[in-house]
């Protein structure tokens, strides 16, 4: 029975005692019996009217509970709908449909938000969101790596304190050089605006272009070195063979010109050998393999490197006892190149050299500092073949940086005050 018919039946039941009492008034019955019948009829009518009120109130209360649940965001409640059609049943059915639709939309929104968060955490692009006061409100995992700290220590801090004021101030996309705690290099910057809870926010996206540019540069040099090596080796082989043959023939000639010719041919052979060594040093750049990661003890590595340098005593500044994943052979070669440069610089002015290590968040940093002449005023320090030292090969710094980036780290050089230079080789503590 639908709600409307239930109300009609309850109303009839409420009127029935009154009608019966009215019928008794027309019958010849004693007054006391008539009064008792009227009293009983009124009491029964009042009770029926109360039942009618409760019957009318119950669906309204259900309707109120459903609307309150929807307002609170709880879409799991459903109303029981009558099998027969009536207006109240239609209202309940529409409310149930609305709750189900809202629940589906919220589920989709939650899944989309979870997907967005997963994508933000996995992409190798730093995403930052700042409020209208310039304070950080959101950062992804790549952003944490760029800033060298966890999210809990970054949220709420102003952009200037994080080193992002310049990136946040400029309009439109562009390129800029940044020295962030966790990453140094050239970045592509994009900025946008959005609103959250009615308040304006700024979105900052930073892409590190250093490694892609370095990889393109390295591949270009590899191709060039392979071509040069092939062509020069093709020239060196006949030169060496010919010089040996001529030297043999000269042994059969007179003593007047034998000495001069032999000396000239010796120079040819010597220069050919030097050119071979020269090209071999460059081909090392193209042949550097992927690092084989094993546990490396930072203290043992630093002490070993200091002991290898014999031209000048190298002081070791002790850091915390710690290990990290790395290729010990490649790291030794990179740090030896840096240490050799520091000693070369210190020897020119009688300064000292020291090597040490420290922990910087999720990174380990090897520091090599000297009291020498400092870095030359040139932007070509990491360009292959470029050197400011007589007889230098121009691959030491390039090789050291290539090793660092092969370990997902970085190499940074800077001058010190009042004199000298500092090299910082930064490597991740986890592979």
Automatic annotation (TrEMBL):
It is found in: Membrane. Residues 227-431 form the Histidine kinase domain. CDD domains: PAS (cd00130). InterPro entries: HAMP_dom (IPR003660), HATPase_C_sf (IPR036890), HATPase_dom (IPR003594), His_kinase_dom (IPR005467), PAS (IPR000014), PAS-like_dom_sf (IPR035965), PAS_fold (IPR013767), Sig_transdc_His_kin-like_C (IPR004358). It holds the Pfam family HATPase_c. Residues 112-157 form the PAS domain. Keywords: ATP-binding, Kinase, Nucleotide-binding, Phosphoprotein, Transferase, Two-component regulatory system. Its EC number is 2.7.13.3. It is an enzyme of class 2 (transferase). It catalyses: ATP + protein L-histidine = ADP + protein N-phospho-L-histidine. Residues 54-107 form the HAMP domain. This is histidine kinase. It comes from Geothrix limicola.
């Amino acid at each position: 029975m639908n709600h409307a018919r239930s109300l009609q039946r309850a109303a009839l039941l409420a009127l029935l005692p009154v009608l019966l009492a009215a019928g008794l008034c027309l019958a010849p019955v004693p007054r006391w019996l008539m009064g008792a019948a009227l009293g009983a009829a009124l009491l029964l009518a009042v009770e029926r009217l109360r039942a009618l009120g409760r019957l009318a109130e119950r669906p309204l209360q259900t309707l109120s509970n459903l609307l309150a649940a929807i307002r609170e965001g709880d879409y799991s409640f459903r109303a029981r709908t009558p099998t027969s059609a009536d207006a109240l049943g239609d209202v309940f059915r529409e409310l149930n449909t609305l709750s189900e639709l809202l629940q589906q939309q919220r589920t989709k929104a939650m899944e989309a938000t979870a997907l967005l968060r997963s994508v933000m955490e996995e992409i190798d692009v730093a995403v930052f969101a700042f409020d209208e006061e310039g304070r950080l409100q959101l950062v992804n995992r790549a952003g944490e790596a760029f800033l060298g700290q966890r999210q809990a220590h970054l949220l709420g801090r102003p952009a200037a304190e994080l080193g992002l004021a310049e990136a946040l101030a400029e309009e439109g996309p562009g390129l800029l050089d940044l020295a962030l705690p966790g990453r140094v290099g050239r970045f592509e910057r994009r900025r946008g605006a959005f609103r959250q809870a009615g308040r304006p926010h700024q979105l900052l996206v930073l892409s590190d272009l250093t490694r892609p540019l370095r990889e393109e540069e390295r591949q270009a040099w590899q191709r060039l070195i392979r071509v040069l090596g092939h062509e020069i080796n093709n020239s060196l082989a006949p030169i060496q063979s010919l010089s040996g043959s001529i030297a043999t023939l000269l042994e059969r000639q007179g003593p007047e010109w034998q000495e001069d010719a032999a000396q000239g041919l010796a120079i040819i052979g010597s220069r050919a050998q030097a050119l071979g060594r020269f090209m071999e040093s460059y081909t090392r750049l193209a042949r550097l393999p992927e690092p084989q990661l094993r546990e490396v003890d930072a203290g043992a590595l630093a002490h070993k490197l200091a002991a290898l340098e014999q031209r000048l005593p190298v002081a070791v500044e002790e850091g915390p006892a710690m290990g990290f994943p790395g290729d010990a052979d490649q790291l030794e070669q990179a740090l030896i190149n840096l240490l050799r440069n520091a000693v070369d610089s210190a020897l020119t002015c009688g300064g000292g050299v020291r090597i040490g290590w420290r922990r910087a968040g999720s990174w380990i940093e090897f520091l090599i500092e000297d009291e020498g002449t400092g870095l030359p005023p040139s932007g070509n320090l990491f360009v292959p073949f470029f050197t400011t030292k007589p007889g230098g090969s121009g691959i030491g710094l390039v090789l050291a940086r290539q090793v660092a980036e092969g370990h997902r780290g970085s190499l940074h050089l800077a001058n010190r005050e009042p004199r000298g230079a500092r090299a910082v080789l930064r490597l991740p503590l986890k592979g």
